[in-house]
Amino acid sequence: MAANRTFSIIKPDATRRNITGAVTKMLEEAGLRVVASKRIHMSREQAEEFYGVHRERPFFNDLVTFMISGPVVVQVLEGENAVQRNRDIMGATNPANADVGTIRKELAESIEANSVHGSDSDENAATEIAFFFKPEEIVG
Ligand code: CMP
């Protein structure tokens, strides 16, 4: 399969613990290439829009508050089967259920402070990439 792209966020629990390099190393070792990256501090409005699909979920307000509690690193990752490859190295949403060797098992703190976000489909990857990056900011 040709190389394609996915979208990743290194979350505030990881920036707070200064482990963005450790996370990125695991992504790279899983065969993903960082073709865009920036450290930002999301506004509440931005986080609410980004996670809009979860608006009705009971954890929505806590999720948004957590995601704006500190800086994040937004990234575009490129590689063969990038969406699935990234989901595999991230591990299950709840680190308690994640496989050994995954980012969430090795580094995450909780289901909320779970260190990384990754797109769940090619379609959502395209939407999420466009939410944070202009085409010229992505250099493959
Ligand atoms: P993420 O992939 O960023 O997408 C939505 C996030 O909601 C998810 O990761 C979790 O970190 C967060 N979250 C917090 N509580 C829950 C929960 N009870 N179930 C699922 N996701 C949760």
Topology of this protein?
Layout lengths: L2 E8 L1 H5 L3 H10 L3 E8 L3 H7 L9 H8 L4 E9 L1 H9 L12 H5 L8 E3 L3 H11 L8
Antiparallel strand pairs: 1-3, 1-4, 2-3
The structure holds adenosine-3',5'-cyclic-monophosphate.
The site of adenosine-3',5'-cyclic-monophosphate has 8 residues, from loops.
Polypeptide structure, described:
The protein has a four-stranded antiparallel β-sheet, sandwiched between helices. It contains seven helices and four strands; from the N terminus they run E-H-H-E-H-H-E-H-H-E-H. The mean pLDDT is 97. It is α+β, with helices and mostly antiparallel strands. The chain starts with a strand and ends in an 8-residue tail after the last helix. Bound molecules: adenosine-3',5'-cyclic-monophosphate. Residues 54, 59, 63, 93, 111-112, 114, 117 line the site of adenosine-3',5'-cyclic-monophosphate (CMP).
Distance between the termini: 17 Å
Strand order of the largest sheet: 2-3-1-4
Order of helices and strands: EHHEHHEHHEH
Count of DSSP strands: 4
Question: Largest sheet, described in full?
Answer: 4 strands, antiparallel
Helix content: 25-40%
- In round numbers, the mean pLDDT is 97
Classify the beta-strand content into a percent band.
15-25%
Ligands bound here? Answer: adenosine-3',5'-cyclic-monophosphate
- Taking all Cα atoms into account, the compactness measure Rg is 14 Å
Quickly count the helices. Answer: 7
Judging from the principal axes of the Cα atoms, what is the shape? globular
Helices and strands: which structural class? alpha+beta
Poorly predicted runs of 5 or more residues:
none
